[in-house]
Amino acid sequence: MPSPDDLAPLAADMTAWRRDFHRHPELGFEETRTAGIVANLLRQWGITVEQAIGVTGVVGTLSGTRGASGGNRAIGLRADMDALAMPEMTGADYASTTPNTMHACGHDGHTAMLLGAARWLAANRDRFGGTVQFIFQPAEESRGGAARMVKDGLFERFPVDAVYGMHNLPGLPLGTVAVPKGAVLASSDTWEVRFRGAGVHGARPHLGTDAPLAAAHFIAALPMIVAREIDPLQAAVLSVGHMAAGAPNAPNVIPSEVFLCGTARAFTEAVRAHLEARVAEVAHAIATTCRVQADPRYIRRISPTINRAEQAAAALRAARAAVGDLAMDDHPPLTPGEDFSEFLAERPGAYVWLGTGDPAHPEGFHHNPHFDFNDAALAHGAAFWCALVEQELA
To answer: Is 295 helix (H, G, I), strand (E, B) or coil?
Structure first.
């Protein structure tokens, strides 16, 4: 099986690709430059390429030659390409040249690693049979790229028996490949509540109905839903992310309307449904108590990412073959969301973590202006992809 040492000759190229993507980040559904580079490189290596899947997505198809007639199985390997709308503060000489846009989650590294694997596999297609679909996804960062690719017929046009994803994880030892059992990442939903009352002079509150008071009680009640209604062995999050009411130059006015919104996270559909129901019920109950109106809304966005047992076991075998003792047979679930779950709703699969070691900056974790992908992990990630293909398409 391929190891990081086998992929080391490609490390310089993967680093160059990664830093070029980092220097020129693109937001979701705007990855025209990145997608063009990806497509051109894949074609140079003799890989069949289709573009504009899910707006700016790219899929490369490579068939192995091992065996009399190759093989009938197919697997998909996915990397995301988009950046985040935030300024960069790394100080790197390859820092973003696009204002308020940066690769703060490592998708530049994901794209480079999958390109490295594609190049190695294209040069060694006699080591596997069957078909690999290299899926370069746009718009993972809350813009629905995976769903758009599925809607565009991703798995009908590029059939796979299983699909796999990988994400870097700062703080996990460099080169570690961790394969969670079951839940990997949480659902990511948005809730909104608008409280409507009768605005009034702040000195005469008895003449109106107090929407801000209702909003305050609602904010205080949200933790109660998680702390007293969710099994302590489960997990859930309800957080307030935005509040809007009144005007700063009119502090003597009790506003007639308050708008709140935030995020909800869960690892099971049952807990997710409970959060959805209770946000509305608590909002209405508090509104009744405060003699105001409540207009709650719950928007389901991303489902939980849950590994299938069979594919998780396959990923773990490949991890052990590629990185040896750096393979980890489980990892606690994390509460961010990931739209790779859209792929897992269509095909069985698994999602793994790639350790990139301690970040160079104390604040250098995902979605932080100091974040930078550790290039020393590129060969480890690409080796895992190649080992998985050899193993599953043997």
So the answer is: strand
Cα(144)–Cα(151) distance, integer angstroms: 11
Is residue 76 within 8 Å of residue 343, measured between CB atoms?
yes
CATH 3.30.70.360 range(s) for the chain read: 188-302
Q: 9 Cβ partners below 8 Å, 6+ apart? A: none
Mean pLDDT of successive 10-residue segments in the chain (394 residues)?
A: 95 98 98 98 98 98 81 92 97 97 98 98 96 98 95 98 98 97 97 97 96 98 97 95 96 97 97 98 98 98 97 98 97 96 98 95 90 98 98 94
Q: Which fold has domain 188-302?
A: Alpha-Beta Plaits (3.30.70)
Query: Do 6 and 104 contact (CB within 8 A), yes or no?
Result: no
Pairing of strands 349-355, 162-169: parallel
**Class (C level, CATH) for 4-185+304-392:** alpha beta
Element (H, E) at 392: helix 378-392
Three-class secondary structure of residue 190 per DSSP: strand
